[in-house]
Design goal:
The protein has one domain. Helices cover 78% and strands 0% of the residues. The chain is built from ten helices and no strands. The two termini are 24 Å apart. It is found in: Membrane. Pfam families: TMEM175.
């Protein structure tokens, strides 16, 4: 089956996720800079999560662009990814509203880890469905960056109970690693 509906569905879910996140930003009750200060943790959480949603969306787009067909396994793997991504507004809001307390920061890392795992499962389902000489299979290779990201997310979870700054440093590090879409796919697409 074609992949058009899968792409449209995923784009819609991701657009809703971003909309929910921005609706969580409450307007301050005051017109001076002091009124904005209590919103700094919420805004920082929003920015970090917006970047993560953008990273997942960009790489999801590239991955689907490199694939020619999907099947039921791919559809379920994609739903799994959308489920974990749909928790971003909740974990983002909880973390920001509670000024980065350890448990919400740790749960944010669990959500990121599960999203990364779901992305990997979708990637494997697409590779299994598409021909072995397809662009995606050639581009992914050993997937070291994905494994490193998952490890850093896992390390960030217990680190939140030591010092939340360590967890945030790890979350930002992974975001920096993935800020640009995975160029391996584009390189393989244009080399053929």
């Amino acid at each position: 089956m074609g992949k058009g509906r899968l792409e449209a569905f995923s784009d819609g879910v991701i657009a809703i996720i971003i909309t929910i996140m921005v609706l969580e930003l409450k307007v301050p009750h005051g017109a001076d800079l002091a009124a904005l200060m209590p919103l700094v943790p919420v805004f920082f959480s929003y920015v970090l999560s917006f970047i993560y949603v953008g990273i997942f969306w960009n790489n999801h787009h590239h991955m689907l662009h490199a694939s020619s067909v999907v099947d039921g396994r791919v559809l379920w793997a994609n739903l799994n990814l959308m489920f974990w991504l749909s928790l971003i507004p909740f974990t983002t809001g909880w973390m920001g509203e509670n000024h980065f307390e350890p448990l919400p920061v740790a749960l944010y890392g669990v959500m990121l880890f599960m999203s990364a795992l779901a992305y990997t499962l979708l990637e494997k389902a697409l590779i299994a469905r598409n021909p072995r000489d397809a662009v995606l299979a050639l581009a992914v290779g050993k997937e070291r960056k994905g494994m490193l990201s998952a490890l850093l997310y896992l390390l960030a979870v217990p680190a939140a109970f030591v010092h939340v700054g360590i967890s945030f440093a790890l979350y930002v590090l992974v975001a920096v690693l993935w800020f640009l879409p995975d160029r391996r796919i584009e390189a393989n697409m244009f080399s053929n």
